[in-house]
Amino acid sequence: MNASPSDQQKILEIAGLDQRATALNHRAHTLAEHALLVSVGTKSQNIRDLRIAAQTEHSDVKRELLRAEADVEQVVMRITRDEARLNGGSASPKELEQLQHEVGTLNLRRTELEDIELEVLMRIDDINVRTTELTVQETAFVAEVSDLQIRKENALAAFNSELETIAKARMETLVLVSPEFIALYEKIRASNNGTGAALLLAGTCNGCHLSINAVELQRISKLAQDEVIRCEECRCILVRGV
Question: What's the total number of domains in the chain?
């Protein structure tokens, strides 16, 4: 195939634009914010789960406290009733002895129940402290996720703006090159990891970065300027420097 030196230079410009676009797309897909969002998002979700679990535990222990308070109240009521009978003076000596024994037993039970009630209250305090700490951590993670999201969107917006500029320049250059030459370039590019054309500079293909052997270089030097040459290694279009 033949292509004018002008077309060959333009195809090299298009290849440069395509390489820039590929590099930008790679940077967009490998933004540090992508991995950070996954990592921080996972941490945020874990903290949220722990906070919800703590609140559920608080509800359960709160019901336990209500039962403990009810048990203490029942015992206190029985003690009050028995003490009233003791102080009433209407009971027989035997009944008084039984009442005194029961009051003593109830006071022991009251102490046990109040100890249980105190232990439950301490557990609630611990849960409240833990819930507060988890809420603070969750809030911080949510803020970090929001900040990362903004940073990611800003970076992607900048990439997209540059990609649009590249796409516009590419279209403007494409219309200046023969369709047959463009078709060859696109076919090579599709089968060559995105490299369709490269500069031949100092005996080296800038596509695969391999040196061209002396025999091939001598052959190329004798070709007409409008003859399209290909790299023997990567098969991309080689454009001779002007």
Answer: 2
